[in-house]
Design a protein that fits this description.
heterodimer, A: 382 residues, ten-stranded mixed β-sheet, B: 243 residues, alpha/beta, Rossmann fold, four-stranded antiparallel β-sheet, 32% helix, 26% strand
């Protein structure tokens, strides 16, 4: 029966094309938008993600997320170091600024000043040079995509100079830093150098990055730091989620993406629902004939659902394929869309959504199949 | 007159007793079959004849278990249809009844051979076995060269022969034909009826043909005349020959 049902399905080529298009359209739109949304949320906490060997982030109590800076006094670093369970603690300077090439090209930049001694917090993915090269005079690390935006078409090359608030900076390292939420260029340098690049007030310490001793739970140590210093202290994971939640709650990003995703589902459902309804209506005499021949209502429903599932599977495969192609070719590591991808759990979630879409779209049609009167083969539709 | 006739041999294949069937709803509800009694025997071709709207199609739909009688009982080969639920009636029909319909209702996306194989696949026979049976039947009906053609590629007569092959593919005990010659000229109609007689009439099978085409009455062993939801007369071939 399987081959018969498949042949019956593909006998209606135009309708099958419509059905497959509807599912593929919904799949592509939902998967692409969900991937972009997750990528954007991941970008919002790129600094936290790059500081992979850090357990705990300490900040002023007024700071709600990683992009809100309220500098602390230098003494806070020593207080944190004094908390039992803290293996080590280092400063992090974070500021937005602009950079200018000698040729006059200007871009916005995220400037990160890391501990002079340990250089903790620099992206571990180095493309050219070594992290140790940041110890050279006026040395900065720049991310590869930022470099390509500042010197488009030029090969990667160390030794290039930049103007950072009228101060000279020399590119000694090129990294593959995680893309930032808004800045085009990501610069890492020594803490002492960073504070000289960007004029600040009396306090300059943006964050304190700490590591818990191996025998202790970082969450417990973070609570101890908060209790002893009066500062906010979160594990890296907690701070990432706080940042993501902040963007979800305080920006229009989720509404914008959710609207597009919802539109994809609604338009896809409408196309699939209407086309499937037409398909079923046109085939009612055939379903009625199958009932006459001895196919029970339950078995017929199973066969129709199988037809819907085949359409769903093909549409999903095409849609998810195009979404994967988009992320593969538009979001290369050297493009402005780098970091956006299609994780397996989004693909799985979209598959579940498409399955739901197919079931919802076919529900009304299934009723018609179930109650299709076999007598219509004698009298026409009744 | 008692409309049930005497059997040629053995018990009747179809027994209808006091069958009442209404069609339509509420104020449009009409009694189409008025307490009808009928016996149909195996080994015969029985014609059910009468003017349009007299209830012929309603009667065969009810006999085939497609419609449920509102009153009375129908027994097919000793099985009381009223005792079967909807699902079991459908399965019973799948095993025991073959239908040749006026408009054929072939599946347009399937080839002639695939159309013939459908009843066998519905009965869970293997695809290879079903295809072999379909090929054999089509060969017997002179359609071997058309086995891989789609219904749209066949003439009306060829489509009808495919429909007949489909109706007998699973060797059912009852074959019901609804107006098999309605769309055909006299010569073609006679050919189809001869074919139906040749391939369907068997000692263990009942054949019931609905028609109002008097040109084919000569092919019948028995003719059951209907009018206004009642059986008015039954004639045997011997009576007709004598007349």
């Amino acid at each position: 029966m399987l081959s018969i049902v498949i042949k019956m399905l593909f006998g209606e080529r135009v309708k099958v094309l419509g059905l497959v298009f509807g599912v593929a359209f919904a799949t592509l739109l939902v998967a692409q938008q969900a991937g972009l949304f997750v990528g954007l949320m991941t970008r919002s906490q790129n600094v936290i993600a790059d500081a992979s060997d850090v357990d705990i982030w300490v900040m002023d109590p007024a700071v709600e997320y990683v992009d809100l800076i309220r500098p602390m006094r230098e003494v806070e670093l020593y207080r944190v170091r004094g908390v039992p369970g803290v293996a080590w603690a280092v400063p992090l300077f974070k500021a937005g600024t602009s950079v200018k090439t000698p040729e006059g090209r200007t871009k916005s930049a995220l400037l990160l000043g890391v501990d002079d001694a340990t250089l903790t917090g620099v992206s571990p993915r180095v493309v050219m040079g070594t992290i140790g090269d940041l110890r050279r005079p006026d040395a900065i690390a720049i991310d590869r995509v930022g470099y390509m935006q500042l010197w488009p078409g030029e090969p990667l090359q160390l030794g290039k100079t930049l103007d950072l608030n009228d101060r000279r900076a020399v590119v000694t390292v090129i990294t593959d830093a995680a893309p930032a939420f808004s800045a085009q260029v990501i610069i890492h340098t020594r803490y002492s150098l960073a504070v000289s690049f960007v004029p600040t007030g009396r306090n300059q310490l943006s964050f304190i990055l700490a590591k818990a001793t191996p025998d202790l739970d970082p969450g417990g140590v973070a609570r101890a730091i908060a209790a002893r210093t009066g500062l906010n202290a979160y594990t890296s994971e907690d701070f990432s989620w706080r940042t993501i939640r902040y963007y979800l709650k305080n920006t229009g990003i989720p509404i914008s993406f959710a609207t597009t995703i919802l539109l994809g589902i609604v338009v896809g459902s409408a196309i699939v629902g209407l086309t499937f309804n037409m398909f079923v209506t046109d085939n009612l005499p055939q379903y009625a004939m199958l009932k006459v021949i001895g196919v029970t209502g339950g078995r017929l429903i199973g066969l129709v659902l199988l037809q819907a599932a085949i359409v769903g599977l093909i549409g999903y495969a095409i849609g998810i394929g195009f979404a994967a192609l988009f992320f593969e070719y538009a979001c290369t590591p050297t493009s402005a869309l780098r970091g956006f991808n299609l994780p397996w759990w989004i693909a799985s979630g979209v598959a579940a959504t498409v399955a739901l879409l197919i079931v919802l779209s076919t529900l009304t049609s299934l009723g018609r199949v179930l109650f299709a009167q076999p007598a219509m083969v004698f009298w026409g539709k009744r | 007159m008692n409309p049930t006739s005497q059997p040629l041999s053995g018990p009747p294949a179809i027994v209808c007793r006091e069958v009442v069937k209404y069609l339509g709803r509420r104020k449009f509800r009409t009694e189409v079959l008025h307490g009808l009694d009928l016996d149909v025997y195996s080994g015969q071709m029985t014609l059910l004849v009468g003017p349009s709207g007299c209830g012929k199609t309603t009667l065969i739909s009810t006999i085939a278990g497609i419609l449920k009688p509102d009153k009375g009982s129908i027994t097919l080969f000793g099985t009381a249809m009223a005792e079967l639920g909807r699902r079991r009636i459908t399965r019973f029909r799948g095993r025991n009844v073959g239908l040749v319909l006026q408009q054929f209702h072939l599946f347009p996306a399937l080839t002639a051979a695939e159309n013939v194989a459908v009843p066998l696949l519905v009965l869970h026979q293997g695809a290879r076995q079903a295809q072999a049976r379909a090929a054999s039947l089509l060969q017997g009906l002179g359609l071997a060269a058309h086995a891989d053609k789609y219904p749209r590629e066949l003439s009306v007569g060829e489509q009808q022969r495919v429909a007949i092959a489909r109706a007998i593919a699973h060797d059912p005990r009852l074959i019901i034909c609804d107006e098999p010659t309605a769309a055909l000229d006299a010569a073609s109609g006679r050919l189809v009826m001869q074919l139906l007689r040749d391939v369907t009439v068997k000692s263990d099978r009942a054949v019931l043909v609905v028609t109002h085409d008097h040109r084919i009455f000569g092919f019948a062993d028995r003719i059951i005349h209907m009018d206004d939801g009642r059986i008015t007369r039954i004639t045997e071939s011997t009576e007709r020959e004598a007349a």
